[in-house]
Amino acid sequence: MDGKLIGLVRHTVVDRYGIELWDSLARPCDSEEMPSDALAAWVGRETVPALRETYPSLFDRHADLASFVQGLGDDLPAVRSTVATSAASVSLRYGVAPDGSILLRIEAECSLCALIQGLIAGAAIHYDEPVLIGELKSPRRGDNVCVLNIEIGTEAEETGAPDLEVAVV
Asked: Which domains does the chain have, with CATH numbers?
């Protein structure tokens, strides 16, 4: 499935919001025109219903959010995907922490990390499961990768975080 998911997301974003928004999501971390993480996450979350409608198999083959997140690595392997005039390399790997939460390592442009967080948030809505996403590492803070701690079944208010579909801590 070489880059299938990112290609579907790109198609959906361009179709609904225009190529300019997609281009802005692929800018490097140090770009002055970098979109906010909130915008990128919103695009990811809002893209899920259209992806689900157009490509139901992406969601139907997973029984729950954990399976979806763990399957992201199969849908989006370390391949080159064309993003406007530049290319973005995206690699996802997951592991399970001792407490049962999922650790997701994302090697990608900054805004694609937030976009993937949004996709997970949208999938959580689809699977009707609460999720708390903690960002352990981020290129915006100078790290060379994103590392997310994904706690499925944890409500934001349980941790004192804002009441959002996804609380990034």
From this structure: 4-159 (3.90.1520.10)
